[in-house]
Amino acid sequence: MMNGRAQMNIVIVGHVDHGKSTVIGRLLADTGSLPEGRLESVKESCRRNSKPFEYAFLLDALKDEQAQGITIDMARCFFNTAARDYIIIDAPGHIEFLKNMITGASRAEAALLVIDADEGIQENSKRHGHMVSMLGVKQVTVLVNKMDLVGYREEVFEKLKADYSAFLSQIKVTPVSFIPISAREGDNITVLTDRMAWYRGASVLEQLDRFSGDKELHDKLFRFPVQDIYKFTRSNDDRRIVAGTVESGSVQVGDEVLFLPSAKRSAIQSVESFNTSQKLQATAGEATGFTLTTQIYIRPGELMVKPSETLPEVGTRFKVNIFWVGRASFIRGKEYKLKLGSMRVAVKLAEITNTLDASDLSFSSTKQQLDCRDVGECILETSRPIAFDLAFISETTGRFVIVDNYEIAGGGIVLENLSTGETLLQRHIRERENNWEKGLVQSEARAVANRHRSKFIIFTGAVGTGKRAVAKALEERLFASRLNAYYLGVANIDRGLDADLASYVDNGGERLRRIGELARILTDAGLIFITTIDDADDFDLETLKQLNEPNDILVINMGENNFSRYHPDFHLPVGGEVADAVKQVTEVLKTKEIIIEYEI
Amino acid sequence: MDHLDKLEAQSVYILREAYREFKNLCMLWSIGKDSTVMLWLARKAFFGHVPIPLVHIDTHYKIPEMIEYRDRFALEWNLNMIYGENREALEGKLTFPDGNTDRITCCKYLKSEALKHTLSGEWPRYRMDHELKRYVPDEGREPYTGVIVGVRADEEGSRSKERYFSPRDKDNVWDVGDQPPEFWNQFKTDFSPGTHVRIHPLLDWTELNIWEYIERERIPVVSLYFNQGSGTRYRSLGCYPCTNPVDSAARTLPEIIDELKSGRLSNIAERAGRAQDSEDGGLETLRRDGYM
After folding, report:
1. What is the spatial distance between Cα A382 and Cα A379, in angstroms, rounded to a whole number?
2. What is the DSSP string of B211-239?
3. What pLDDT, on the 0 to 100 scale, is given for residue A313?
4. Exposure b/e, A166-197, CB count within 10 A at least 16 = b
5. Residues near A21 by beta carbon (within 8 Å), at least 6 away in sequence
6. How do A287-292 and A264-272 pair as beta strands?
7. Statement: residue A97 has pLDDT above 80
8. B217 vs chain A: nearest CA distance in angstroms?
9. Is-cis flag, bond preceding A225, omega within 30?
10. Cα–Cα distance for residue pair A11/A13, rounded to 1 Å
11. Per-residue pLDDT averaged across A406-434, rounded?
12. How far is CA A357 from CA A93, A324, A329, A360, A366, in A?
């Protein structure tokens, strides 16, 4: 490696017009980082249009911006000091552009928060301070700008420093430093000037170099969200590679690994890479891939960890802190998509415990939804278990975003796992069964009349294992014996019962619930209800079993057994004769006394 | 990890994220150094394979060496190589070199329009047949919903505003003022029907990083980037009527890197040799309209 220069992302935030772009323009100009002629051409353009030159114009590269006089989106600019390379992210201060500010700040390792000495602390000075801390930016320096407008007086600076420090301490943020500056006049930007001889701290440039670089992630718990599983068989490559980026910690060839939430175990066989020397370990930050010593079935979205270390949380219900930037409010009853690590899962807002107005730090425990720009402590419930960490234990696997109507509408951090409590599903089933209105025909009487008991039969297995052929043949066979069997193709549900479920949401949870509810009704009617589900996992079957209760379920797995907890009632090989498979399944039905020997 | 390792890891993550989330994904390969680095990063991401089709918009005014290079590596690296073109404009000679349009309009016809209609599948696509070793009409006419593009934030102003995952509407229009947020490493991977997403794995790379990486990985690049005795070299590649070489003595990768770091090019804009940028409106007007 030829050049080990460190690189750091810095975000500049603050209220609109407090001078963020001017600070950057100054830094670029005074460190000689501008392309040749840029400064002169902007000055010339100002002269032509008879408006005073401002350093901020250097950044406002887009026409829209110059017209409106505000930074619309974050602009990145690059400069370097003797110590390292910087990417400065100019985050817009205008309140409409909060989501742009978040985008900028979430990538930063340190933040410069600009406050106008003349105008004082404004709404966004507080909001941005709060956001920056929630986004995980630990190093914050406050620049008290426009000191020229207050006569460079020390008491103005000290007063503002005391007030803002008091605010920050409420949200448990301790700034690295406060620097009095005038970006327009160039005071204390690259060097200290005499106009504030009372200030003896670092200039902005010196402060940048003092921020500490790499986050110390190597020594932390090993966390590897499985981004994808690759097998490029068609290109004559038989490696089955578990691909992703190591979020923290490290792992070596030979290490035992555990996948959550599926709870499958294996060990690292090899660390895979292209155009490098052979690797024996992978550490935090590396986008890499592994082969495993055993062929286990896992899906993207699982979290790979080391069983020898502290394990992450697994659950469906947890307390979080969320900031909401969506156009539509965050409401209860609606299904959203949650993205945490590489996991995508349907999620619902279960409860709002309190909301915080970031501008005046007032709490409310009565608000029932989160509106755009609100920050709130909520309880979320996912449609299936996910693996995660509490944010204070492992930052990168403890944060998530929520997608609403194709857009990322909110982001947050996990505070607490509440999964031991009753889930929304359990409560739903309990309430449903308590209120179930029964007819006058007893299920035993129905079974006698039908000459068979009711059953919900699920065929599962990978796509292409021939599940449907067997399921349909089973229905035909039972029907031929005049038994009340009914096969339903799941695609029919998609186009019928589930037609209202918008295709963009990860609505697996709701689709599963509807199949379960349908099974509950059809088995109650005394049917042998047969359907197929591709690649059902432990959680799917557990959920369907619960939804179908108090009636019975029978699971037939075709091909590879990918379950770690659920035990299917019967396994069928792939590629066998359909008639033979039907015969085996009817034998199972007999031994389980669903049908009586002489009836078939 | 040094800064190149970090840039590489982030780009690989973005490429894998795109591959996971978009069914109809393609990567634009301009044959220039940036998208060639991007192609290399795809080989990193997918362990030597490139499971994403590569799309090149052929203006037929590209410097011939670029096309030779494209086809050579398409075969060597087993790429799913596709090209598209604006046949109507070429046949009707509606181009700047034919004297019938200005430079910007020519770019619009031969690149933006060709790109738009090739991505949407409305215009023919040509695919490299690895058996025949030549291009044949492609049967795939599905619109691409995810398009990977090798733009860098440091190239010029409007590119510094991009997101890693940036939505475009039906007409390829980019609404700079209203872009979705990107939190940490979570990007916009959901999109409504009729829209597509541009994916920018190289956004954080600088021109210098690109050359440092080419040297470190020994990535083959077109020789036009080097001074081959004339005292000039190309710094940015495009169509020959509108692309001029810059004065430079750099014959090797270390010399190019040195030139960028400390030499005379360190304060001159990279696209200074691209004539269309200096016309009124320039690149920003082109980009709003779908130019890469």
Report:
1. 10
2. HHHHHHHT----GGGS--SSSEE-SS--B
3. 93
4. eebeeeebebbbbbbbbbbeebbbbebbebbe
5. A55, A56, A58, A59, A60, A71, A90
6. antiparallel
7. no
8. 7
9. no
10. 6
11. 86
12. 17, 12, 15, 6, 13
Is residue B171 classed exposed, middle or buried when 0-12, 13-18 and 19+ CB atoms within 10 A define those classes? Answer: exposed
Query: What distance in Å separates the CA atoms of residue A189 and residue A204, rounded to the nearest whole number?
Result: 5
Residue of A nearest to B8 (CA): A287
Question: Across residues A345-364, what is the average pLDDT?
Answer: 79
- What is the residue extent of each domain of chain A? 7-210, 224-305, 314-421, 441-599
**Both tokens assigned to A455:** 């059953």
Domain A314-421 CATH superfamily = Translation factors (2.40.30.10)
Structure tokens at A16: 């609109």
Q: Taking CA atoms, what residue in B is nearest to A232?
A: B49
**Closest partner CB to A62 (pick from B163, B176, B186):** B176
Contact flag B2-A77 (C-beta cutoff 8 Å): no
Residue A210 pLDDT grade (very low, low, confident, very high; cuts 50, 70, 90): very high
A103, A250, A283, A335: which to substitute to probe chain B, counting the most B Cβ within 10 Å?
A103
> Does the fold of domain A441-599 match that of domain A7-210?
yes
DSSP sequence for A470-519: HHHHHHHHHHHTT--EEE--HHHHHHTTTTTS-TTS--HHHHHHHHHHHH
pTM more than 0.95:
no
Query: What value does the mean pLDDT take over residues B38-46?
Result: 97
Give the ipTM: 0.91
The predicted structure's pLDDT at residue A314: 92
Which residues of chain A make contact with B45, given a CB cutoff of 8 A? 243, 287
Looking at residue A423, what DSSP letter applies?
P
From B47, B182, B269, residue closest to A230, measured CB to CB? B47
Structure token digits, residue A565: 């907890």
Residue A92 has what pLDDT?
64
Instruction: Find chain B residues with C-beta within 8 A of A241's C-beta.
Output: 47
- State whether A75 and B160 contact (CB < 8 Å): yes
Is the torsion defined by CA of B199, B201, B204, B206 positive or negative? negative
Of the candidates A35, A243, A407, which has its C-beta nearest B267's C-beta?
A: A35
For residues A567 and A541, give the distance between their C-alpha atoms in angstroms, rounded to a whole number.
10
Reduced to 3 states, what is the DSSP secondary structure of residue A555? strand
Per DSSP, helices labelled H in A171-298 are 204-210
Is the Cβ pair A286, B190 closer than 8 Å?
A: no
* Beta-sheet pairing, A281-283 with A250-252: antiparallel
Residue A221: per-residue pLDDT: 92
CATH classification for the domain delimited by A441-599, as one of 3.30.70.260, 3.20.20.80, 3.30.1450.10, 3.40.50.300? 3.40.50.300
Region A224-305: CATH code? 2.40.30.10
Q: Considering only CA atoms, which of A153, A126, A152 is closest in space to residue A140?
A: A126
Task: Check CB contact under 8 Å for B3 and A272.
Answer: no
pLDDT at A350 over 80: yes
CATH topology of domain A7-210: Rossmann fold (3.40.50)
Chain B CA closest to residue A325: B181
Please report the domains of chain B, with CATH numbers, ordered by start residue: 3-205 (3.40.50.620)
A75 vs A58, A98, A111, A112, CA distance in Å?
Answer: 11, 14, 15, 15
